[in-house]
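User: Just a sanity check before I run the rest of the batch. Below are the structure tokens for the first item. I only need the designed sequence back.
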């Protein structure tokens, strides 16, 4: 005998619907995952999950979804199948269903940085930045060396208008550890924008030995000349090489990642 596993709508609705009206038009009256086998065939679930990953890589979301449903029929408690099904819904823009599956996966893997980061991506895509930042922070806390989680949190904090030592540390993590060129460039640009201006060095009067001849008065050192007058600068061009804040484009929201095990 199989059993039907369902999560009542109000549980996730209480979390997601107040956050953003984008969920409102796609919220189902009820959502049932699968008719599950009570025997929990983990090996079958794993094989189906791997089959789904191959279909997903080929761009066949329908076959991938069907394989993941098979995996959940074999073992409804197999967390990677829930996570990877959430990724398919995210790709389709079905954010409510994506959140449902990611939340189910997180209940099975409560300290998974991957699943928690994926939930953050759903909240950010829905425009609810505080909840996205909350989930990104948890993912970074569990895997502080992961540049992708650091990048997601840094981007969310910057978009939220926050500028702090935390942001700087996250950006440095991306610059030195990330392998995605567009993210490294973005992080460098952000660090340049928020770099503190060094204070001018204090003048020091040199001391002379007792009995020595008085030092001659210092010669006037001219200020560095500017090659162009301000009026000669092209219209709209900044007078320095640092990019303006609105000239640094945020990297695109990354897709959630699959869990293999």
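Assistant: Here's the designed sequence for the first item:
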């Amino acid at each position: 005998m199989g059993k039907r596993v369902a999560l009542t709508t109000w549980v996730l609705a209480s979390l997601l619907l107040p956050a953003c009206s984008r969920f409102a038009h796609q919220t189902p009256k009820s959502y049932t995952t699968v008719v599950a086998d009570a025997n929990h065939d983990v090996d079958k679930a794993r094989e189906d999950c791997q089959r789904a990953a191959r279909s997903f890589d080929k761009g066949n979301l329908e076959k991938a979804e069907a394989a993941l449903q098979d995996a959940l029929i074999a073992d409804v408690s197999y967390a990677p199948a829930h996570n990877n099904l959430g990724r398919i819904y995210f790709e389709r823009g079905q954010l409510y269903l994506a959140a449902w599956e990611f939340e189910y996966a997180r209940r099975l893997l409560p300290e998974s940085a991957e699943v928690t980061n994926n939930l953050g991506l759903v909240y950010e895509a829905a425009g609810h930045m505080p909840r996205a930042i909350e989930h990104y922070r948890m993912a970074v806390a569990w895997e502080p060396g992961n540049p992708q989680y650091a990048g997601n949190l840094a981007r969310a904090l910057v978009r939220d208008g926050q500028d702090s030592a935390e942001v700087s540390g996250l950006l440095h993590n991306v610059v030195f550890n990330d392998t995605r060129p567009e993210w490294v460039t973005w992080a460098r640009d952000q660090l340049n924008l928020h770099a503190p201006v060094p204070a001018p060095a204090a003048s020091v009067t040199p001391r002379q030995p007792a009995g020595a001849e008085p030092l001659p008065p210092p010669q006037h050192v001219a200020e560095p000349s500017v090659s162009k007058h301000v009026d000669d600068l092209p219209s709209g061009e900044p007078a320095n090489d640092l990019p303006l804040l609105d000239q640094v484009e945020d990297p695109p929201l990354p897709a959630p990642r699959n869990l293999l095990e």
